[in-house]
Design a protein that fits this description.
By secondary structure, the chain is an alpha/beta fold. It has 21 helices and 13 strands.
Length: about 450
């Protein structure tokens, strides 16, 4: 396919997303299945155009003066790909399969493109209804924080230290340009350019042998901040596919016992194969069955309960740019209810002296500090461990990390702008006195 034909295809996919209100991945898959002539390089390039357009949807529409798929794609080429008007005109020249030629109005807007007077939500490329929520967290920096969340994420890998050392794995992945992550001592990062095709990590021998897992550096850090050397019995309460479960197993050196469960048993489906590939022998999966609570026997016995809480995913917009345009106030309200429920369950599982690590991939105060504060108000037997103490788990990196993150009295917030990770919030609470009734763990 010619570059112009790829642009036309991306506009077509964007129109499908808008018309059918569907995830970008679904629209891209269906487009590829119905057009077998497109090779893998074409599909990767088209996906890159679509995702970049979704990342810059608000700002691209602003400079072009309309929200049509064509306008958003053209505006993105100017803002994100940094193409000048003539270069864009070369792609939209009306040739076979290419978009129709630029209009005079389009040329004028591309020539004078500026976000100088745009509102913060346009500069930051996020839904306008979220602006008051982001003001609470970032204040006048919300446009810069949003813009960082709109950039393409790198590919981060976690080295499985049960099987290998980071330097050894880095050498085997040198052909991908894998380099040590800044903060995580077990992470590797593969930088990806705007047009770069994501490498087929699942086909790499290092992956097949269980030496690596795909995991954002922020997620790796959340696990490192959550646990201590004395943890022997750990519950991963929202384990899903097992990313943090496996990270816990490696951090514990294969010792102790981890109980992994999830309210939605369908989300647990991939965990068994991943455990086997990683060679983790200290994980027991508790799959919900009917109305029976899978963790009743663990009430009041756990050193650590990790809550990888269900959330809006605002911190992961770099990886799911279409999700930010689909999120609605109703979704936030639903996630808040789920978080409260899982928090209460966690409280009933912790033994005296044990801890809860509450983690979200959200940057919203309602899902982070507010949830922690609400739990502490309901349960005076718990207290927040000062975040300054929590970050000491990172050793010599801790002082620099503490200056980089946004730290409150209750937790630590990582963001792409501050730490070059996804947006992750981590709060660690210690049980300091009387027990919570065992019924809370049902």
């Amino acid at each position: 396919m010619t570059p112009g034909a790829r642009v036309s295809a991306a506009i077509e996919v964007l129109a499908d997303i808008d018309t059918r209100h569907r995830p970008a991945a679904d629209a891209l898959r269906d487009w590829g299945l119905s057009r077998r002539f497109a090779g893998s390089a074409d599909r990767a390039a088209i996906a890159g155009l679509v995702y970049d357009a979704l990342r810059r949807r608000a700002s691209a529409a602003f400079i072009m003066g309309e929200e049509a798929p064509r306008a958003i794609l053209l505006g993105m080429l100017r803002l994100e790909r940094k193409l000048d008007t003539e270069a864009i005109a070369g792609l939209a020249d009306g040739a076979r399969f290419a978009p129709s030629p630029l209009t005079e109005e389009e040329r004028k807007r591309l020539d004078t493109a500026s976000l100088e007077r745009a509102p913060a939500w346009v500069v930051g490329d996020y839904p306008d209804w979220l602006d008051p929520h982001l003001i609470r967290v970032f204040g006048d920096d919300r446009d810069a924080e949003g813009a960082a969340l709109a950039r393409r994420a790198p590919l981060d890998l976690r080295v499985n230290t049960l099987k290998a050392k980071r330097e050894t794995v880095a050498a085997t992945l040198a052909h991908l340009g894998a380099a040590p992550t800044r903060w995580s001592p077990v992470g590797l990062r593969v930088a990806l350019g705007a047009d770069a095709k994501s490498p087929a990590i699942n086909a790499e021998p290092a992956f097949l042998k269980g030496l690596i897992e795909v995991q954002d550096e922020g997620s790796q850090l959340a696990v490192l901040l959550a646990r201590t050397e004395t943890d022997r019995q750990v519950v991963d309460l929202c384990a899903g596919g097992g990313g943090k479960t496996l990270a816990l197993a490696a951090a514990m050196g294969g010792h102790g016992q981890i109980y992994a469960t999830d309210r939605d048993k369908r989300r647990l489906a991939p965990i068994h194969a991943r455990i086997a590939r990683a060679g983790a022998r200290n994980i027991q999966v508790r799959t919900p069955r009917g109305e029976a609570a899978p963790l009743t026997d663990l009430a009041g016995r756990s050193d650590l309960v990790l809550i990888d809480a269900p959330c809006t995913g605002t911190g992961a917009w770099r990886r799911n740019p279409d999700a930010k345009w689909r999120v609605r106030p109703g979704a936030l309200a639903a996630r808040l209810k789920e978080q409260t429920t899982v928090f209460e369950t966690a409280g009933g599982l912790v033994k005296p002296g044990g801890r809860i690590a509450y983690v979200t991939c959200s940057v919203l105060a309602e899902e982070n500090d507010d949830q922690v504060r609400g739990f502490l108000e309901r349960h005076d037997e718990f207290a927040a461990i000062p975040p300054g103490e929590v970050v000491k788990a990172l050793g010599e990196q801790a002082p620099v990390f503490a200056r980089a993150v946004l730290m409150s009295e209750l937790g630590v917030l990582m963001t792409p702008r501050r730490t070059d990770t996804d947006g992750f919030f981590v709060s660690v609470l210690a049980r300091v006195s009387k027990p919570i009734p065992a019924s809370a763990s049902s």
